[in-house]
Design brief:
The chain is an alpha+beta fold. It has one domain: Nuclear Transport Factor 2, Chain: A, CATH 3.10.450. The protein is built from three helices and six strands; from the N terminus they run ααββαββββ. It has a six-stranded mixed β-sheet with strand order 2-1-6-5-4-3, with helices on one face. The two termini are about 30 Å apart.
């Protein structure tokens, strides 16, 4: 179950429950392939950096990358077991991604770590993904 979090624009930083709730919402929308819902979570000038797919800047560039990724892996799913506080305004989690690569039919499994940093208004300002090949 995804918790609902409330935010105050004047708050200096979010607490663990708020960051965790937003990260859980991000993962849930990713697993639902809800691209429109995902984009509502991102700050306009967010950055997304992945050791596997590169670096993307701005909501539109991130949207294009995610749309292409979800097209290549139409059944992609991320399993997350624990959300931990990261540096300052961020939360970190380890994940297992499983998917079928549409062009080849090959089953893909990847493990990695993801750090999501938020603005004081609860928008994603940065994502850093590090894949550890299995």
């Amino acid at each position: 179950m995804v918790k609902t979090a409330t935010f105050s624009p004047d708050a200096p930083e979010m607490n663990h429950d708020q960051k965790s709730a937003l990260a859980q919402l991000y993962v849930a929308r990713s697993n639902d392939h809800d691209l429109s819902g995902l984009m509502k979570l991102f700050d306009e000038f967010a950055t997304y950096q992945s050791s596997k797919v590169g670096t993307f800047t701005g909501r539109e560039e991130i949207k294009e990358m995610l749309a292409e990724f979800m097209g290549l892996f139409p059944d992609v799913r991320w399993d997350v077991y624990c959300y931990d506080n990261g540096p300052a305004d961020s939360i970190e989690f380890e994940f297992k991604m499983t998917a079928t690569h549409a062009p080849t039919g090959e089953t893909v499994e990847r493990r990695g770590c993801e750090r999501i940093a938020f603005t004081s208004k609860g928008k994603i300002r940065q994502i850093v993904v590090t894949i550890r090949d299995t």
